[in-house]
Amino acid sequence: MLFSTHAIVVLLSLLVYVSVTRIGHQRRAPSAALAWVLLLVAFPYGGLPVFLMFGTRKLLRPGQRAPRRFDPARNPLCGIPQTERAPIDIWAGELLASMGMPPPAVGGKLSFQAEGEEALQAVIDLIDQTRQQLRVATFLLGQDDQAERIVEALCRASARGVEVRLLLDAMGCLRVTAHQYEQLLAAGVWVRRYMPLLHNPVHGRANLRNHRKLLVADEQTVWAGGRNLAGEYFMGVGDEAAWLDLSFSIEGPLVAQAIGAVGIEVPDAGLGHDLAAMLAAITPETRMVFIANPNNPTGTFIPGDALLRFLEQVPPQVAVVLDEAYTEYLAPEQRYDALAWVKRFPNLIVSRTFSKAYGLAGLRVGFAVAQPEMTDLMGRVRQPFNVNSAALAAAEAVLDDADYLTRSYQINCEGRALLVQAFEALGLEYVPSSGNFVLVKVGDAAGINDRLLRAGIIVRPVANYGLPEWLRVSVGLPEENRAFIDALTKILGK
C-alpha cells in the first residue's frame, strides 16, 4: 500500500512536470530537464514544491526565439551610406533584428534626470500633463511624502478623466498600506499586483519579479530608469541619503517602439505635410496614417483636392485618420467636405473637437466619423471612460448656436490678422496659418517664453517639435492679442 502511494506521488510529480513544461512550451537544456526528472523521481515530496516555485518559467528566453534576418530597408539609418555611419549603428541594427526587436529609432528627444528632486518633479509633471491614458509600473511604492505626492498626482489624473493603470509587483509592494490602495481605487485608478506569492505555478515561478520602473503617458512620452516610486530613490529617507540613481524621459519614435509600434516620421515640406513622401513611406506593415489639417503647431493647410487624391492612392487596409480640430477656422474658399468622403473610403476616420472654435476646451469633448466596420473596431479598443453628461449637453447646445460659431470665426480672423501685422512690423518670420494660432520665429524662444510668462502671458514653445527658435501664439480676444504684442515688442526692444 505504501509503495503504491509512493508510486502515485512519483507519477503525479512527473505528470505535473510534463504538463507545465509541454503546455507552456518551456524548452530547456537536456541536462536541466534530466536533473529535474531525477529530483522528482528520487524525492517527489520535496522536489515537486521546489519545481513549482523555481522550475517554471512564464516566457521563453531570448535565445530560444527563432532568429530573424536583418532587413536593412527597415532601418531608419538606411538612407545614410555605411561609410558615413558609425559601426555601432550597423551592429545595433543587426543585433536588434536577430532578437525580433524593432530597428533603432532616430529623431527622438531624450532628457536625463540625475538629481532626485528633478526626477520627482519630472514624474509629477508628466502625470499632471497626461490627458488620456497613463500606464505605470514599479517594483516598489513607498510609504513616504514623495510617494504620497505621486499617488495624489495619479488620483488627480484619474479624477479629470485620464485612464490610469498601475502595476505593482506583489513582493516589492508588500508594505503598501491599505490607505494607499483605498485612495487609488476610490479615485478610479486601475491597480493590479504582478505575480502574487500565492498564484498558479503554471503562470510562472514565484521569484520571477517585475523590476520595471516606467510611466507611459498618452503613448507619447515615457519616463523610466532605475528609480522606484519611493522616497529613498528621490530625496532619501530621514538622515539617509538617496540612492544614487538615474532616470530619463523620452519623446518621439522610441515611445512608439515602447508600446509595440514602429513610427515612421516623414520629413516635412515647408513645415507642412509632404503627401507624396507619406505615400512613398507606406509599406505592407503600415497600419495607420495620421494627418492634421490644418496642421498643429504650424497652421499649414492641405487643399481638399490634394487630400482626395491622396486617399485614392492609400491602400484600403491602411487606416487614415484625418484630424480636423481647426477646420471651423478655414476660409470659405478653403473648405471641403471630408465627412462626405467617409461614405466612399471605408478606411477613413475623420475626427473633430468642440475644444477650439466652439470654446469647450475644459469639457474634453469631440467626435469621430467613420463607417460602421471601423467604428466597431474602435469601440473594442476605446478607453472605458465616456464623456460626462454636462459635456454632452454643452456640445449639443453649441451645435445649434450658429451665431456663436460665426462670431468665433470672425474674432479669430481679426486676431490672426493683427498678430501677422505685428510680426511683419517687428521683422519676424512667421508661417501663414489657417488655424487659431500663428507660428513665429523669435530666436531665443525659451528665454522669451520665460519673460512672457513673467508678464502673465502664456504662449507655447515648440522645441519638442524640432523648432527651438519658434513660438506658437494662440489667437485670443482683442485685448489679449494687444497685450501680447506690447509685451513682445518690449522684450525685443523694438
How many helices? The count is: 16
Structural class: alpha/beta
Any idea of the CATH topology of the largest domain?
Endonuclease, Chain A
CATH structural class of the largest domain: Alpha Beta
CATH architecture of the largest domain: 2-Layer Sandwich
Overall mean pLDDT: 81
Distance between the termini: 103 Å
* Largest pleated sheet: 7 strands, mixed
Principal-axes geometry comes out as: globular
Q: What oligomeric assembly is this protein in?
A: single chain
Side-by-side strand order of the widest sheet:
1-7-6-5-2-3-4
Give the radius of gyration. Answer: 28 Å
Number of domains: 5
Number of strands: 15
DSSP helix fraction: 25-40%
List its salient traits.
494 residues; alpha/beta; Endonuclease, Chain A; 5 domains; 7-stranded mixed sheet; 4-stranded mixed sheet
3D architecture notes:
It is built from 16 helices and 15 strands. It is an alpha/beta fold and 494 residues long. The protein has 5 domains: 52 residues; 48 residues, no CATH class; 150 residues, Endonuclease, Chain A; 124 residues, Type I PLP-dependent aspartate aminotransferase-like (Major domain) (Aspartate Aminotransferase, domain 2, 3-Layer(aba) Sandwich); 89 residues, Aspartate Aminotransferase, domain 1. It has a 7-stranded mixed beta sheet. Helix 1 runs parallel beside helix 3, helix 2 runs antiparallel to helix 3 and helix 5 runs parallel beside helix 6.
